User: Which sequence fits this backbone?
């Protein structure tokens, strides 16, 4: 089930953020640099559109949709105003089961519901393929908070309005989505 995150779940979401990043076996020193980016606090949940994927009482994944009212500078990176997918993390034990695809479909539907016509994504370099599988197009590299590392900037369907998102997602394996539905029952 996908539902809105609760303020008291901040610690769980933080744990998912760090363990999901750990899936890629990054050097230990990166995590102290990412601490501020990956730590979720109750205020963050209360101020943004944060959704969790849970089975039973266990939260397995989450995403957050953030609306920037004006351009901001984050670690020397200028992010344009608009809507950004800031986080999408799945527990490593559940990667490959279609949960990320299910969350992305939910995100798409959320954008349509809120009349969000453009969405920006700064992806972990290792997750770029996932977003491209979900129909996103690569735009450019952004500097990372990690020295000598970049972060891919992607947009769904080359900034075609999200209202056209209602077409089937290219490359999504329905078998994985069916597995997710089986997990929920």
Assistant:
């Amino acid at each position: 089930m996908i539902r809105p995150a609760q303020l008291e779940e901040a610690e769980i979401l933080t744990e998912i953020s760090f363990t999901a990043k750990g899936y890629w076996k990054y050097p230990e020193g990166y995590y102290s640099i990412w601490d501020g980016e990956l730590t979720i606090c109750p205020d963050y949940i209360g101020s943004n559109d944060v959704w969790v994927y849970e089975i039973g009482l266990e939260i397995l994944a989450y995403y957050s949709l953030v609306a920037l009212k004006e351009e901001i500078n984050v670690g020397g990176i200028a992010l344009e105003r608009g809507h950004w997918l800031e986080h999408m993390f799945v527990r490593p034990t559940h990667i490959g089961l279609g949960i990320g695809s299910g969350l992305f479909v939910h995100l798409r539907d959320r954008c349509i519901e809120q009349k969000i016509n453009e969405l920006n994504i700064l992806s972990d370099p290792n997750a770029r393929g996932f977003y491209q599988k979900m129909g996103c197009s690569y735009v450019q590299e952004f500097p990372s908070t990690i020295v000598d590392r970049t972060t891919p900037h992607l947009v769904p369907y080359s900034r075609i309005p999200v209202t056209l998102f209602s077409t089937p997602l290219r490359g999504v394996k329905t078998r994985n989505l069916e597995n997710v539905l089986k997990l929920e029952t």
